[in-house]
TrEMBL record, chains A, B, C:
Position of the signal peptide: none
Pfam families: PhoU_div (PF01865)
Name the record gives this protein: DUF47 domain-containing protein
Family recorded in the similarity comment: Belongs to the UPF0111 family.
Organism: Pengzhenrongella sicca
InterPro entries (UniProt xref): PhoU-like_sf (IPR038078), Put_Phosphate_transp_reg (IPR018445), UPF0111_domain (IPR052912)
Domain of life of the organism encoding this protein: Bacteria
Length: 206, 206, 206
């Protein structure tokens, strides 16, 4: 156990929790977008784009404070990595939504909605865990569960790719769908990276 | 404001400025290559490849010095990140040029030349900013402008992709063009990463 | 030369060596998989998947110890980067093998076996070098050779891509093969990253 001379009452905890709460909104908008018709999708996509901008601003606020603060609640690099990883989750989800609209993908494989359900679950778990960074309590279940979800999603993703290659005969349609599906997989990976960063922090503090 | 006990007169500033100046040459060669016929392209591509090797050597010089120097003008990791990010700009531009030649892409969408113009502007801004790291003066405009350019390029890139998917009916041609266009987009992203690293350094020093 | 107050007798050296030895098995399984018929490939792919899980576990062990250990044999971040880079080598090789099986790629371009031979050589060099981290002796040849192999593989990779685009007329087949070939190229890049991290450590210690 290392010596703790660091403050527990800093704005970093609130800022990280805000950033994670924003991800729940992002994942829910993505689920809504998937279920909507082409016209409604455009409107939902705009909301998703706005949520991404809010996330960007939150990340910048954390980075600026981080660079100006001498004593941080845990390793400076870990806060930096955590804020970057949270930002990546939103960037990937927003790009997936944008591609669905840009490529006019009216029909998506059924398993895409499973990918998005995993993202919603990851976002909820993450938003739920962030406030517990302050007390460093009960974080183990969170990162174990996100790692489990990511492993499961990775296996499902590869099967989905193989299935798409078997069933879709139009190569251009296949290219479009593949890009969306991979962007969703990148989003799940980004949530896993958040969880791994939290684990790193928690182990150091234990 | 943190205490400054670090030297202002170190080779790192010159090395980083050299590395950035090399990027201007890289971006200009890429613009030249785009406007040339197939035979001339090969010759220009060789020059681009040489410029990339010069960049590699510069990066290695910075890394070796960094690992051997005890007191650095700013955080060791920040210099490392800056040198790596500058290197990534060149690697991506060189790969884009090489793909254009390898895939014998005689005709490229008009918007590709806009992408390359953005790269030229980013390279100039970066080469212009690097020498100002020494005094840490007037860097704000640089990173704000590069971030603005990257945002604009990202939007243009997505529209270009959607347009390509609408208009190009030969899937293999589409795959080739998509790869080039994405490599150019990666190049812009790499310039943004340079700017973000400079911002990090500047905020710490302010 | 920096002051050395760090222990030479820590479990980190053994753990990193184990992780690298596992890569030799991974690269050999990949070579075996390539030469096998479709049915045997499935069985070999399962072994490769198990080797990847063993690698994951080794990485987690290193990370946990790293976060709990106050004095490490060299920079904490360097050990972290080294363990991550070793893990990336295996992840990429396992994914390449899995794609070959999932996409039912009975025939692969002849140059793919050259890519895998490079991976086998990189894995051997890496496994051979890791135990020498303890004494920091004779590491230069290792990283120079891996960098040389990566440069050569990069050039061969681009030529292979151009050749595939010239010769394969079925775009869906081309997409599948391209993904495998790129995953193998990512594997070589991951080995180069390991070598670069070792160089960083060695230069600091010299």
């Amino acid at each position: 156990m290392r010596l703790r001379l660091t403050p527990r009452d800093t704005p970093f905890f609130d800022l990280l929790a805000d950033s994670a709460a924003n991800l729940v909104m992002g994942a829910n908008l993505l689920a809504e977008l998937l279920g909507a018709d082409r016209q409604t999708r455009k409107a939902i996509n705009k909301k998703l784009s706005l949520a991404e901008q809010v996330g960007d601003e939150a990340t910048h606020t954390i980075m600026r404070r981080l660079n100006k603060t001498f004593v941080t609640p845990f390793d400076r690099d870990d806060i930096y990595n955590l804020a970057s990883a949270l930002d990546d989750c939103m960037d990937n989800m927003e790009e997936a939504g944008d591609l669905i609209v840009l490529y006019k993908l009216d029909e998506l494989p059924a398993r895409v909605s499973e990918q998005i359900q995993v993202l919603q679950r990851c976002a909820e778990l993450t938003a739920d865990a962030m406030p517990r960074l302050r007390s460093m309590s009960d974080l183990g279940e969170y990162w174990v569960e996100v790692n489990r979800l990511e492993n499961q999603a990775d296996k499902a993703h590869r099967k989905l790719l193989a299935q798409m290659f078997d069933e879709i005969t139009d190569p251009i349609q296949l290219m479009k769908l593949k890009e969306v599906v991979e962007k969703l997989e990148d989003s799940v990976d980004a949530f896993e990276k958040v969880a791994n960063t939290v684990e790193t922090i928690a182990v150091k503090e234990s």
